[in-house]
Write a structure and sequence with these properties.
The protein has 373 residues and is of the alpha+beta class. The chain has two domains: 265 residues, 3-Layer(aba) Sandwich (Beta-lactamase); 73 residues, Peptidoglycan synthesis regulatory factor (PBP3), Domain 2. It has a six-stranded mixed beta sheet with strand order 15-17-18-13-12-16, with no helix packed on it. Strand 2 and strand 3 form a beta hairpin. The longest helix is centred in the middle third of the chain and has 14 residues. It is globular and about 65 Å long.
Length: 373
């Protein structure tokens, strides 16, 4: 199964592209029933309109479904889709009975053409049923602290109680975007895949028009049902600043997202994390009791509204002991950077020095007090 992420040419990208203004002085008046803009790093709210109200969120639900699918692993293993799972109404990636797919292809089918068939097929493959998969979705929502979120279906077709808030969806998108595979897929205007029976090459197109409308946009997901209205979750970068924007039930979502970004980018700034110095890890099997480590690369700046660099916290994640021998540059652990108990990112920690293995001294043989005849 081959994968190829492709973008349109520069000529097509710039056609009709909206280049943002420096910043808008006043907060926009949006048409959405609920809206929010947050720092993609800290989760701080930059703009809010009914952002805590629980509402149906249609196919933006697939952000969670795709994230869980990616995290389940074995993305390139081919399998035959469940026949019952793919018979579902609404948007589709074009699955048919007997089709051979991969979970990677299903993630693309969820995030680009918003395939309900892809979401159901992934759910059955991972959990055995859509109901069991919804349990996994809700467990992850609870883990992320999404207090207004409840999932009934993997696709977003409404069930009783299925819904979320604009703020919860912003936090979910921020978490999903930390996964490089998720980000790579949802930021693509089109993707070339092979699936079917037998698999053959085809293109999937992204329903997120903001990718080509607003400079710096790199995700995330559209949604629509009669009950939920038009829903949109997007992410955008400008000058090293990263924001996530959500609108629920918004008849003018493209324009509202652009207006909110024009305003919000003028409200935030970036800070450089100040990494702790002289980090050591316990060392076993060597002459030294510990080994010095350093960050593999400097962390990217953190987008903040009012948070200060001193409010960032750092946690070393590593095994209880590092065992010799170790060569300088070996990856030995990770450094977690957090704000308000919420992890922002992780960076690799590498050995800053060599550590040789110290073998135990050979035991001397005792002389025998007996003599052989």
């Amino acid at each position: 199964m081959k994968r190829l992420v492709s973008a349109f040419t520069a000529v097509l990208l710039t056609a009709g592209l909206h280049f943002p203004v420096a910043h808008a002085e006043e907060a926009p008046d949006v048409a959405a029933k609920a809206a929010v803009v947050v720092s993609a790093d800290t989760g701080e709210i930059v703009y809010s309109h009914n952002s805590g109200e629980k509402l149906p969120m249609a196919s933006t639900t697939k952000i969670m479904s795709a994230l869980l699918c990616i995290e389940s692993g074995n993305l390139d293993e081919p399998f035959v889709v469940d026949s019952g799972a793919i018979h579902v109404e609404g948007s589709s990636m074009g699955l048919q009975e007997g089709d051979i797919v991969t979970k990677y292809a299903l993630c693309c089918g969820m995030l680009l053409p918003s395939g309900n068939d892809a979401a159901n097929a992934a759910a059955v493959r991972i959990a055995g049923s859509t109901e069991k998969f919804a349990e996994l979705m809700n467990a992850r929502a609870q883990e992320l602290g999404l207090g207004k979120t409840y999932f009934v279906t993997p696709s977003g077709l409404e069930g009783v109680g299925h819904g979320s808030s604009a703020y919860d969806m912003a936090l979910l998108a921020s978490e999903a975007l930390r996964n490089p595979i998720f980000r790579d897929i949802c930021s693509s205007e089109s993707i070339k895949l092979e699936f079917g029976n037998p698999p053959y090459t085809r293109w999937l197109r992204n329903t997120n028009k903001l990718l080509s409308m607003y400079s710096g946009t790199y995700g995330v997901k559209t949604g629509f049902t009669d009950e939920a209205g038009r829903c949109l979750v997007s992410a955008c970068e400008r000058g090293g600043k990263n924001l996530v924007c959500v609108t629920l039930n918004d008849r003018s979502d493209w324009n509202d997202h652009m207006a909110m970004y024009d305003y919000a980018f003028g409200q935030v700034h970036t800070v450089e994390p100040e990494l702790p110095q002289d980090i050591t890890l316990p060392l076993a099997g060597s002459t030294n009791e510990c080994i010095h480590v350093r960050a593999e690369a400097p962390p990217e700046p953190v987008t903040v509204l009012s948070a200060d660099r001193d409010e960032l916290t750092y946690t070393v994640i590593s095994p209880p002991f590092v065992y010799a021998p170790v060569s300088e540059g070996d990856e030995l652990g990770e450094l977690s950077i957090s704000y308000g108990g919420h992890e922002i990112r992780r960076i690799a920690l590498c050995a800053a020095e060599d550590a040789e293995y110290k073998s135990a001294p050979a035991k001397k043989k005792k002389k025998s007090l007996f003599f052989r005849k």
